[in-house]
């Protein structure tokens, strides 16, 4: 083989190696560029997903905050209602206690007044002037000679009145038919019906109106008149 042929072969091989090297570099460069593009696209998608997720989290957080504000407002409203109900309950209990005390006091006073009236009527029947004087206020003068209780009028428009001593044998029964009690002013107004038995039936023959005032813890007669 001559020298020219070997030279041509060597030259051809060198050209082939050069071509393969260039091709390999181009292929590697293309692969690197493609990888970079894919990575950039991946990073962009990941960022969009992250942004979307954050937006959703923010929306949920705002919803939860709105729910919390609503619940807080409802809680404060319920707390205010609960406080009001407690105050109403305390007021109701206080009113109930005061009413119970008033009713108990009223019952006790009615019994006390009833006993006092019976004793007062009996004192008139027996002409017990000393007891009558003790059981009446300064407005009433006991006139034993005329058997009268003279009630002094109050004010220019009210004249003096007189009440003749009762005889308990003129009736067989008596009971309260009307009353008014003012515990604040220590005042008790009562009307007694006097009854007789006529034709096997009780008939009211008279009604006596009496006003009591409290004096040193005792109920005394302040006025008395027929109704």
What does this 3D model show about the protein?
This protein has 227 residues and is an alpha+beta fold. The chain has one domain: Nuclear Transport Factor 2, Chain: A (Roll), CATH 3.10.450. Helix content is 57%, strand content 26%. The chain has 2 helices and 7 strands, in the order ααβββββββ. The strands form 2 sheets. The protein has a 4-stranded antiparallel β-sheet with strand order 4-5-6-7. A 3-stranded antiparallel β-sheet has the order 1-2-3. It is rod-shaped, with a radius of gyration of 57 Å.
How is the secondary structure organized here?
Blueprint: H1 3-125, H2 129-134, E1 140-143, E2 148-151, E3 161-164, E4 173-182, E5 187-198, E6 201-215, E7 218-226
Antiparallel strand pairs: 1-2, 2-3, 4-5, 5-6, 6-7
Keywords: Coiled coil, Signal
Signal peptide: 1-24
Coiled coil: 44-95
Task: Describe the structure using short key phrases.
single chain, 4-stranded antiparallel β-sheet, alpha+beta, Nuclear Transport Factor 2, Chain: A, 7 strands, 26% strand, 3-stranded antiparallel β-sheet, 227 residues
- Cα distance spanning the termini: 170 Å
Biggest sheet overview = 4 strands, antiparallel
Order of helices and strands: HHEEEEEEE
* Structural class based on helices, strands and sheet pairing: alpha+beta
Instruction: Count the beta strands.
Output: 7
The overall average pLDDT, rounded, is: 82
Low-pLDDT sequence parts = none
Q: Classify the beta-strand content into a percent band.
A: 25-35%
Q: In CATH, what is the class?
A: Alpha Beta
The level of helicity is: 55-70%
What is the topology, as strand order, of the major beta sheet? 4-5-6-7
Radius of gyration: 57 Å
Question: Which oligomeric form is depicted?
Answer: single chain
CATH topology: Nuclear Transport Factor 2, Chain: A
Please tell me the total number of domains.
Answer: 1
The number of distinct helices, counting runs of at least 4 residues, comes to 2
Signal peptide: 1-24
Coiled coil: 44-95
Keywords: Coiled coil, Signal
